[in-house]
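User: Hi! I have a protein structure encoded as tokens and I'd like to know what sequence might fold into it. I'm fairly new to this, so please keep things simple.
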């Protein structure tokens, strides 16, 4: 694998990562605007469509997914002594999967915040997810 091909793969990895992080950031703002009533809309079911206990359990699961993505990323093991193509492909898959796990946790948390009618939860889980994604950026 030539250097331009490797650089192209890394550009793709960075674009995918940026799209995942940007999606969480934008969705956080949208949920916060909707739940806080700044857009004139109210969350489904009035002030809260989700009871407190299930909301807290689901939010804990969402945060756990974000943390799991960080742990997955830190615990990577790439092929040693192999071809550059194999190593770059393994790294690309690893970054995309671990970042997608983090994004999934963030989006789950944002959905819970929306259903629970909690604007601060939306900002919190969004900030935690984007921060975690930046900690593990390619």
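Assistant: Happy to help. Inverse folding works backwards from shape to sequence: for each of the 138 positions I chose a residue that suits the local structure. Here it is:
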């Amino acid at each position: 694998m030539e250097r331009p091909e490797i650089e192209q793969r890394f550009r793709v990895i960075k674009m995918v990562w940026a799209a995942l992080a940007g999606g969480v950031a934008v969705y956080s703002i949208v949920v916060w605007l909707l739940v806080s009533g700044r857009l004139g809309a109210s969350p489904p079911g009035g002030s809260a469509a989700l009871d407190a206990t299930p909301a807290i359990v689901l939010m804990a699961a969402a945060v756990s997914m974000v943390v799991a993505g960080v742990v997955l990323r830190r615990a990577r093991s790439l092929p040693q002594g192999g071809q550059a193509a194999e190593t770059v492909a393994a790294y690309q898959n690893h970054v995309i999967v671990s970042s997608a796990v983090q994004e999934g946790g963030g989006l789950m948390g944002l959905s819970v915040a929306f259903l629970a009618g909690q604007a601060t939860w939306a900002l919190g889980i969004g900030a935690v997810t984007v921060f975690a994604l930046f900690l593990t950026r390619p």
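A useful reference point when you look it over: The helical segments are 3-36, 52-74, 84-116, 119-135. Feel free to ask if any position seems puzzling.
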